[in-house]
Amino acid sequence: MTKAEWRISDDLINYDDALSFMEERARAISNDTACEQVWLLEHPPLYTAGTSADPADLVDPERFPVYDAGRGGQYTYHGPGQRVGYFMLDLRKRGKDVRQFVYNLEEVIIRTLASFNIVGERRDGRVGIWVVRDDGREDKIAAIGVRVRRWVTFHGIAINVDPDLEHFKGIVPCGIAEHGVTSFADLGLPVTMDDVDVALKGAFDEVFGLEPRPMTVKWQPAPMGRKQIATNGQDPRIEDTHPVFKL
């Protein structure tokens, strides 16, 4: 059974530092000099642009720093109170199926939410995981965007635990203007980041069937682009640069 290292950072991680680490780790995994890793963290307030981001969706470019992420997807907010999960996994050992990998990430989020009696759902044509409010509105609670290079994944997911939802107003999240965003706290669930991490790890083990290595840090409750994506029917959540797909 494939083993993956789990890492949790309690401090807010600079985005450039996270991106550099992911790229270096993905390269090492591809070269068989490092094991797979799942990294759970939070960022300071910032926006990231995926490879299919529309500049018009950056409503307030002066509000927070904006980073070219190089992942699939459009504009996303990251900040304190949001659990970001970066998945550096070797698809050469997992069937070389990128869309199945993304589906599995969605399933991890859905099962994590279910641990807290939140019904998370996929929506055709809308990236991310959604919840239906009592009044019928559908709000996004988690975002997904990945990149694959030489069959190794990086980037991943962002689950809104207790972020400042006002910070999302500087962008059109994932290019979807007609729907809002929500969080555990917004839904009336004051869970800790530690609670979410336990549920997330359990869901990940169920979906991916991994035998994780010991945590590299102790769990602690946390305080509350580079090129255009191909237009050949590729999944917009994925920036895919392994040899099979011509981009």
Describe this protein with a few key phrases.
aa-tRNA-synth_II/BPL/LPL, 12 strands, transferase, acyltransferase, 247 residues, three-stranded mixed β-sheet, disordered C terminus, alpha/beta, 20% helix, single chain
Sequence stretches where pLDDT stays below 50 over 5 or more residues:
211-234, 240-247
Strand content: 25-35%
What is the tally of helical segments? 3
3D shape: globular
Rg over CA atoms: 17 Å
Helical content (DSSP H or I, runs of 4+)? 10-25%
Run of helices and strands:
EHEEEEEHEEEEEHE
Description:
The protein is of the alpha/beta class and 247 residues long. The chain has helices spanning 15-30, 98-114, 193-208; strands at 4-12, 36-42, 46-49, 66-68, 75-78, 82-88, 121-123, 126-132, 138-149, 152-160, 180-181, 238-240. The strands form 2 sheets. Strands 1, 2, 6, 7, 8, 9, 10, 11 and 12 form a 9-stranded mixed beta sheet that branches. The longest helix has 17 residues, at 98-114.
